[in-house]
Write a structure and sequence with these properties.
alpha+beta; TIM Barrel; eight-stranded parallel sheet
Length: about 700
């Protein structure tokens, strides 16, 4: 669930380096000198409790059916007398307790590690949590953190084990780059749409003037923004792959719709099987995909196409209200004849004047967008289901197969896909998504299914049968915007403090299985939001810089909306879709240089991609350590402990005391800021390790050990 502003005891702390090695760490390192009151004193210490499904705490976060899984719990040194894993199997309605035992002490002497093994996870979803005892005291722990009361067996904040469910490793380890094709780069001027080339929706086409700087995207005729074209195309994307893959280091290319359509945005598809002529040809698409997949021009890449499957355009031959300027239909469409083979593809309360459209019913007072008639998916095996995903010649399968071989689909307006003109988000929608997943993974088991949803998407993500992930508006874009910029993703005024920010992030992580969290796409902005630099009232890039620190170190897959890296400005649609200023596409631009550096750091350290996430400031119990505007967290695995410290104030903060003991950093050890190269020595405060760091205003440090 999403408890946006509930201020609660926030979350856990650290980890160690090698569990196997530390079996004898107490004798080797010494455990004296503590000034904290852990011990068998009938009091479970919450601050030190920690578990997630990162590589140090879960032996197999994506187990096969019947596998065994060993779970590790971190507690304060010598603090507890017993612990248990409690798991619930919804298929049988049974609850099972697994006793845990002490296995090691952390080399720093701060923590003990307890383990238990679920010998057979079965084949259906399990939910689990921990029961922790110190004499007469008991604490409970699930993904929402510690509690004095036991969570319900079906609490959405419990940890998940979903046998057989995997999310793509290339998404976990990649960096994405989103492109709105018409505005990125014009690689072939011969296919540019010219002024008055054709008319649509009462508007003549208009050729935009692509110049350096903040190019206007407004049409000369009011209400005709969708008919302004700037000439960006697939050849242009291919021409600039060196910038994306080499200069920046991103390797996942998500492309907004590319199929035939009379508008520049292409969210009103006329023909799913044809690349829009203004963008090139189907051969151009094949060449682009091959170039992205190649490792000869940068890191091996991956392609996600935008699938607009809730609705078509009214120029689509299946509908036939209008004819797209270069489209020839083999038969009449549903709007033209009730005898059309496509009549059941749509829903007509009163043919032909009333039909379900995107967000409403055209021809009535509840009309949404009439140019986007809504598809009717009917029952299982219906012609629409077969056409979109169900057969080998369906739209989704066609582009997953040779000669294209894309790596995933982003599902536009996915919650609305349904039967009978309904609004979606019901049992039929989930049935369709389950069928869609089965069809996609049968062609490519490693394909990504990325849903668009602006709220809590756990209904499509919590059992492994529908999407792999969602665009993380709810758990990243919006909280980051409100914390840094003081406005939401649509530029509405709303500011949250660091404690609220930390709670929001924790709560939205707790809603999702671990492997889903790892592939949620973290965007500062998209084609549907006000530009991040505009939200932050761009001044020397401060908002963008801090946002990028968060974007490239937080749990999930970073997804750069083209131009955000250099601070492209823009308000609501269409102002968020400006032409790319290629004079800024160089590391002489401070934002581009920082993006390159941060992506390089992320690509080098697996802990920033798949490591555990441990809150540091605020820590497990919500202690801000008296540091206003500072948010800090650790990402840890068996190789590295990395602490990220972010300063959301306008002034440089010196001497920020960071409790790196929560990440398992030992007193006397050295940590290095990967951004500046500055080194810090971990000092003792009451026997626990801290570093005093200096953080520039609206900037960050990344401390590695």
């Amino acid at each position: 669930m999403y408890r946006r502003y509930e201020i609660q005891r926030v979350r856990p702390g650290p980890i160690h380096a090698l569990l196997i090695f530390v079996l004898f760490a107490g004798a080797l390192f010494g455990l004296g000198g503590r000034a904290y009151a852990c011990g068998n004193n009938n009091d479970v210490h919450w601050r030190e409790l920690f578990h997630d499904q990162g590589p140090l705490f879960d032996s197999d976060p994506e187990p096969a059916s019947g596998a065994s899984v060993t779970l590790t719990l971190r507690v304060c040194y010598h603090d507890i007398t017993s612990a248990n894993i409690v798991y619930y199997d919804a298929a049988t309605g049974s609850e099972t307790w697994v006793p845990m035992s002490w296995v090691s002490t952390d080399p720093t002497g701060q923590f003990d590690y307890w383990q238990g093994t679920i010998g057979d996870v079965g084949s259906t979803e399990l939910q689990y949590w921990f029961q922790i005892n110190d004499g007469t005291a008991t604490a409970w722990y699930n993904a929402a953190g510690p509690s004095s009361t036991e969570p319900a067996s079906t609490d959405s904040d419990n940890f998940y084990i979903i046998p057989g469910f995997t999310t793509p490793d290339w998404m976990k380890n990649g960096v994405g780059y989103q492109i709105f094709p018409d505005r990125f780069y014009d690689g072939n001027t011969s296919n540019d749409i010219t002024t008055d080339e054709y008319s649509y929706g009462g508007c003549e086409t208009e050729q935009g003037n692509w110049v350096s700087g903040y190019t206007s995207v407004e049409a000369s005729v009011s209400g005709c923004n969708s008919e302004v074209f700037f000439g960006g195309d697939l050849v242009g994307i291919q021409d600039k792959l060196s910038y994306i893959k080499q200069t920046l280091g991103a390797n996942i290319i998500y492309i907004n719709p590319i199929f035939a359509s009379p508008t520049n945005h292409k969210y009103d598809t006329a023909n799913y099987y044809q690349v829009d002529p203004a963008f090139g040809t189907n051969t151009d698409l094949q060449n682009l995909i091959a170039a992205i997949h190649s490792s000869s021009n940068g890191p091996e890449g991956y392609v996600i196409l935008d699938g607009v499957f809730n609705h078509t355009g009214d120029t689509n031959c299946w509908f036939g209200k209008y004819t797209y300027w270069n489209e020839t239909c083999a038969s009449s469409g549903a709007y033209q004849s009730q005898s059309s083979q496509y009549y059941d593809y749509y829903t007509f309360p009163s043919w032909p004047t009333e039909y379900s459209d995107f967000l409403g019913v055209c021809g009535t007072s509840s009309a949404g967008i009439c140019s986007m008639p809504k598809l009717d998916y009917g029952a299982s095996g219906s012609p629409v289901r077969e056409q979109i995903y169900g057969s080998s010649t369906s739209v989704m399968q066609t582009y997953l197969q040779a000669p294209y071989g894309i790596d995933g689909w982003r599902l536009d307006a996915a919650q609305y896909i349904d039967a009978g003109g309904n609004g979606g988000s019901d049992a039929t929608n989930h049935q369709i998504m389950q069928e869609m997943r089965a069809a996609v993974t049968a062609v490519n088991p490693n394909a990504e299914i990325l849903g668009e949803y602006w709220g809590d998407a756990s209904a499509w993500l919590d059992d492994g049968t529908e999407w792999d992930s969602a665009m993380n508006y709810n758990g990243f874009t919006n909280p980051v915007s409100e914390w840094i910029c003081g406005v939401d993703e649509n530029d509405n005024s709303n500011s949250i403090d660091t404690s609220q920010f930390a709670t929001w992030l924790w709560d939205t992580r707790a809603d999702l299985p671990w492997n889903v969290q790892e592939v949620m796409t973290n965007e500062l902005g998209t084609h549907d939001t006000t530009r991040f630099a505009t939200r932050c009232s761009w001044t020397d890039g401060w908002g963008t810089y801090l946002g990028m620190f968060m974007q490239f170190t937080y749990v999930g897959t970073p997804m750069i909306y083209y131009g955000d890296e250099y601070g492209m400005l823009g308000g609501a649609d269409p102002e968020n879709r400006h032409t790319f200023d290629w004079s800024d596409a160089t590391t002489a631009n401070a934002g581009v240089a920082l993006a390159q550096q941060l992506i390089g750091i992320r690509n080098k350290y697996a802990a920033l991609r798949t490591g555990s996430f441990i809150p540091v400031i605020p820590d497990m119990v919500g202690d801000l350590y008296g540091t206003s505007g500072v948010y800090a967290f650790a990402r840890v695995d068996q190789n590295n402990r990395i602490v990220v410290v972010l300063n959301n104030t306008s002034s440089t903060q010196s001497g920020v005391a960071v409790p790196v003991w929560l990440a398992g950093d030992a007193v006397g050890s050295t940590v290095t800021d990967l951004v500046t190269g500055t080194q810090y020595t971990v000092y003792s405060n009451g026997g626990r390790g801290y570093v005093n760091v200096t953080v520039q205003g609206h900037y960050g440090v990344i401390l590695e050990q």
